[in-house]
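[audit] Reproducing an earlier prediction to check determinism. Same input, same settings, fresh worker. If the tokens differ from the archived copy the diff job will pick it up downstream; this log only records the rerun itself.
[audit] input (156 residues):
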Amino acid sequence: MPPYQFQVRVGGLYLMYAVYQIQPISPKAKIRLTSQQWDDALYFQQQAKLQSHLDVVYIFNRLIQEQAFQFCFTSQEIGTQPNSHEGEDAEVDLADEMKEEKCIINKLFNYENLEQLSYLQDQYQRMKVALAGPKATKPDKSLNVVKEEFVEDIVL
């Protein structure tokens, strides 16, 4: 989205909406977006709102409402089957893209986020023990489906 003028992006949004709506299959194929593409799309929506292009905001919100977006790690699908139509250039691009996404993941798992996750995990564990009964020291087996060291496993 970013390298194009606003009018071109509006046209692209309308085309994306039209193609999504006329799909003859059920369920409809989703529009793949990486986190950077999603950020760009949200910025585009803000620009449209500031410029009073309410039709553009409506179309974008409609796509969100219909859950038309699939949030992905990379813009290309990755599978176990090699694609015969892609060459080494695609592998290099994918490697570069994965390096960029690794940086995003590192930002996600910063100290503050992990600390908050640890706090929520502790609360969750206490609630499960409380549900097991007043004299319980461990959660019921049916509630014990998440590892207690969840946050520590992420860090290591």
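[audit] rerun output stored. Observation attached for the diff report: Residues 111-132 form the longest helix (22 residues).
[audit] end
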